Amino acid sequence: MYGEHRRHELRPLATVSRSSPSTVLFNRPVRETNPLKWAAFYSCGLATRAPQEIMPDDTAVDVPKIAEVPIVYRHEWNSHLLSIRIARDDTYRFRPGQFARIGLKDETGETIWRAYSIVSAPQQPFLEFFLVVLPGGKFSARVAKLGTGDKILLERPAQGFLTLDRFADGEDLWLIGTGTGLAPYISMLRDASTWTRFNNIVISLSVRESCDLAYVEEIEALAASHNAGEAKLHFVKSLTREPDAAAAANVLHGRLTTLTESGELEKHAGLKFDHTKSRFMLCGNPEMVEAMRAILKARGFAMNRRLTPGHIIVENYW
Ligand SMILES: Cc1cc2nc3c(=O)[nH]c(=O)nc-3n(C[C@H](O)[C@H](O)[C@H](O)COP(=O)(O)OP(=O)(O)OC[C@H]3O[C@@H](n4cnc5c(N)ncnc54)[C@H](O)[C@@H]3O)c2cc1C
Ligand SMILES: NC(=O)c1ccc[n+]([C@@H]2O[C@H](COP(=O)([O-])OP(=O)(O)OC[C@H]3O[C@@H](n4cnc5c(N)ncnc54)[C@H](OP(=O)(O)O)[C@@H]3O)[C@@H](O)[C@H]2O)c1
Predict the structure, then answer these.
(1) For 179-244, where are the E strands, in sequence order?
(2) Can you give the C-alpha Rg of the chain in angstroms?
(3) Cα distance between residue 252 and residue 256, in whole Å
(4) Could you tell me if the CB of 293 is within 6 A of ligand 2?
(5) Given ligand 1 and candidates 116, 130, 240, 313, which is best to mutate, with the most ligand atoms within 8 Å of its CB?
(6) What is the pLDDT of residue 101?
(7) 8-state DSSP, 311
(8) Residue 174, helix vs strand vs coil
(9) Of 95, 110, 114, 138, which is best to mutate to test ligand 1, by the most ligand atoms within 8 angstroms of its C-beta?
(10) Global pTM value
(11) 316 beta partners
């Protein structure tokens, strides 16, 4: 079931050949993977239904909970950051911001499962993940050794609550992340509906070193390609362990918590936190998530809870 993509007959075909790992794919016609272009196809009638209409809930679909799926693409950003794509069956459904559990057997035959945020958009015919390869990491060090064609286990359904539908309202979306905590935000940006939901989207990302800045070209291309009437994207990057490189690249230096307290984050985003407009997502290092949550709380922002709408939704990676 997983080796062959059953593709949606409603999606337009396009040949994609670009250098960013999120777009370089196959030397053959593939479906348009850029949600903005998809939206353009849709609006000019080449596609007849919006992506969300062809991605209904899969609760009625009778499929095995665990499947073995091949890696169809891999890209090493540096020695410790890796993106992989695995084949995706149409029946695997998710919302941007959710995570999948993927698994590998260890030498004793026991399966190691780990959660990974899904980087790809629901309209894309693969599942993409962005992984840090941890020295001695039980799972990540194993994945790093796999190549295209190798198989990993995928559990369904997708899980998680770091999803935009949990915010009832809001105009400015602050997507705050550390390291691989960027992953779920890429999925949101690749999904055209995010761009019509908010007036402003701020990606605030801190990494240790400049070589850890992944997906930058794609984010900048998306920022440049938004149309009038869609959200404006503000991209604030910070390097925490390379002050000279930060200065040379004209990006911030320092932790997002420090930059928030000093006002630098708002200044560089060109937007003020606002109780009526601002909605925050925090993802990645749990110490950052906790510290940032406390800073926002002190400024009068509240956690979004199931029965009590608020400003903040979080995802801790460990
Ligand atoms: C909901 C959820 C989503 C996740 N999404 C991602 C993702 O998109 N990409 C990703 O790389 N990881 C993600 N993780 C973490 C992932 O599940 C694994 O924990 C991680 O890959 C390490 O697994 P490991 O077995 O190699 O090392 P482990 O032995 O599990 O981890 C060793 C230590 O490494 C540190 N660590 C773990 N994950 C990270 C990380 N992502 N960045 C920095 N330090 C870390 C922690 O200190 C941890 O105790 C997510 C975790 C959760 C709960
Ligand atoms: N060269 C290498 O081999 C290399 C390089 C990077 C990572 N790694 C490995 O990858 C692992 C994960 O590293 P990572 O960089 O992906 O994740 P990380 O340690 O969580 O760091 C990611 C970002 O989060 C920031 N941060 C950490 N704690 C914070 C807090 N309490 N408040 C606010 N910000 C905080 C970091 O700033 P600070 O820099 O100030 O902590 C950094 O900018 C490391 O443990 C290491 O094993 C290896």
Answers:
(1) 200-207, 232-239
(2) 19
(3) 9
(4) no
(5) 116
(6) 98
(7) S
(8) strand
(9) 114
(10) 0.86
(11) 284
- Answer whether 13-159 and 164-316 agree in fold: no
* DSSP helix/strand/coil, 302: coil
The values of phi and psi at residue 287, to 5°, are: -70, -40
pLDDT in tens, 126-150: 999 999 999 999 999 999 999 999 9
- Options 3.30.200.40, 3.30.750.24, 3.40.50.80, 3.40.50.300; CATH of 164-316: 3.40.50.80
Structure tokens at 266: 């708002």
Domain boundaries, the chain: 13-159, 164-316
- What superfamily in CATH does domain 13-159 come from? Translation factors (2.40.30.10)
Neighbouring C-beta atoms of residue 232, cutoff 10 Å? 15
Please give the average per-residue pLDDT across 4-11, as a whole number: 29
- Using alpha carbons, select from 234, 225, 262 the residue that is nearest to residue 176: 234
Ligand 1: which residues within 6 Å by Cβ? 99, 114-117, 129-132, 134, 137-141, 160, 179-180, 183, 315, 317-318
